[in-house]
User: What shape does this take?
Amino acid sequence: MDVISGGVTAAPGFKAASYAAGIKYQGRDDMAMVFSKEPCVCAGTFTSNVVKAACVLWDKDIIDSGSPMHAVVINSGIANACTGNEGFEACIQTAEAVEEALGVPYSAVAVASTGVIGVQLPVDKLVNGVGQLSTILSDTIEAGESASRAIMTTDTVNKQIAVTFTIGGKKVTLGGMSKGSGMIHPNMCTMLGFLTTDLSIEKKLLQKALSEVVTDTFNMITVDGDTSTNDTLLIMANGLAGNPKIDRENDDYITFKEALLYVCENLARRMAADGEGASKLFTARVINARSKEDARVLARSVVSSNLSKAAIYGCDANFGRFLCAMGYSGVDFDQEKVELYFESAVGKLKVFDRGRLPAFDEEKATEIMKASEVIVLIDMNDGKATATAWGCDLTEKYVEINADYRS
Amino acid sequence: MDVISGGVTAAPGFKAASYAAGIKYQGRDDMAMVFSKEPCVCAGTFTSNVVKAACVLWDKDIIDSGSPMHAVVINSGIANACTGNEGFEACIQTAEAVEEALGVPYSAVAVASTGVIGVQLPVDKLVNGVGQLSTILSDTIEAGESASRAIMTTDTVNKQIAVTFTIGGKKVTLGGMSKGSGMIHPNMCTMLGFLTTDLSIEKKLLQKALSEVVTDTFNMITVDGDTSTNDTLLIMANGLAGNPKIDRENDDYITFKEALLYVCENLARRMAADGEGASKLFTARVINARSKEDARVLARSVVSSNLSKAAIYGCDANFGRFLCAMGYSGVDFDQEKVELYFESAVGKLKVFDRGRLPAFDEEKATEIMKASEVIVLIDMNDGKATATAWGCDLTEKYVEINADYRS
Assistant: This one.
């Protein structure tokens, strides 16, 4: 597998565009479109929030119907959540505008939104935006890059990646972009992710691979414990690579799944590192746990704890907070078995040893925690299961951003 | 029922004292003792965290044994959590020091700690502190007041209250003090609460009343979602009021339980309002829910959400965040039935109406949200159950306090 430059336009047959529709922001692009003339097999995962945005309901219908997908239209100004029938109508009108402009069925057009909840979308601006986007669609790397910028809200950097790998002698490309900071625990500005590939694969297996990979990647990141109404991850596969169609869990499926895992983990880590107000990536790695689920719950609890996050920000080796967060996670364990380390590019230090408190060098600990990625390594000494969760530190800036989000 | 001045020394037979033992802080009292020469029936509730402080284990043993209690010794410097056998030994030595100084069995002495996790207590300072405290015990209002100050950590104000009520023609007094900010979701500095009464009551009924009242009071407050290793609430009843002993759930029991509810709710609200960095009390009141448990979970989810808390801080009527927090609470509901209001001493405003977005005056909303207590009133229109949860806003100051707690 090779990492190449580009994102959603890396795979042959995919075009993208961005446009400043003036939905919320002025002077920057706030709409994007990804388009494939070839019909695409598609799969998706969505927010578990009971309150689902209108666009999530629309996209779920498309995925569930099993019909092919040609396009996705995204806006980064208004979330279209808590907007009732009028909000759902806005999805339909957006999709109809794509049908009119590009001649693909409106039922093959997904829509995604991120931004403020409880405000209706200006449909006229959206429809106009679709018209503009349709005229400037391009398969260049630049077009994919501009789309990855247009979907940002409070993100400070755009996130895209592309890889190539070989299946059945054919080169396959997988690319993607994402924004926001979570899936189980996304922040206000929502996790959105869009992946494109020229792989040939059955829909059922595409969904299976995506769902399994999400469990260990996007579902293991957290910024603030708030699960958005809009979280959406879509993958479109247009089959242009010409590989033997993947129709069972053979070696080709495993090769694809490994590439998908690489792409999703890369995007997920970068989203966590770019969490609102974050100054660093905070990784919790649990090893030797009783079960995979225990390991996941423990790792997520640690990176979700406000007190742990604040300690990471303050470079304070206050390991008790990490043990405390493990303790209320719901997983039963014996602290007399647990070992806890702080680790980064600078070094590694044991700070808790099976119920005992080893003397450790506080200055060394602070040095380790000053790195741009700090890992809390938790050895449960109680089994063989492993999991990693990614989050970020909690800073004054998070509060500044969120105390006055709408104005 | 009448509210009177005082706290843990309000009820006859209870003495208190505080002392600057130099455990963590310099120049302020960091130890306190509450003492009753009469043996007390006692009850308690404790943290649900798997990682329990040594003192929690010690106190649970006393409560479970059914033997009477005479004293509780508290320090506010070091939590004595994650400290293994050495930490448990520190509890025993503290209790033995009380036995030596005051002639009550060491097994009748509870201990409580709050402060930094993962550091051993300086037992010599504790034992010396017990000796000092024993010589200055007093039943004055001032002694209770000083104890309520000595147990503070990051609290900005002390919290105490006392009430009197009549049972069987006898005046009964119930007083208490607390510190910290939570029980299900306490912050680092731990929720500790100590109640004293001269009521005569059977232990089993005292525990029942306490457990039931805690569910609707201390368990409904949150500051940051982190459940401490040390949370402890103890009640001691010495029987000096001379009322007919409460031995069943009769009218006397109900009278007592109402007084207990008043005292616990008062302390709980004040702890939430004094959450770390908080600038205001944030109350979520859920009405007409399907079940009491649904109402509790919804109310707690709303006051626990970082995004809701930041919106309350910013006086931003961003009601979508509140609906979003309800949506991921785990309770199933139909947003087409929900009505949402912001309410405070300044007025009341409907901001979400059964899936529709009523036009509302943003300036009025901001005015309402500037009050020192902001209530989010959530009408589920789906049943008859009600619950209230209390929290606080999330401010830059919370981060400042917790990024560098230990130094």
Observations:
- DSSP finds eleven helices and 14 strands in chain A.
- The two ends of chain A are 45 Å apart (CA to CA).
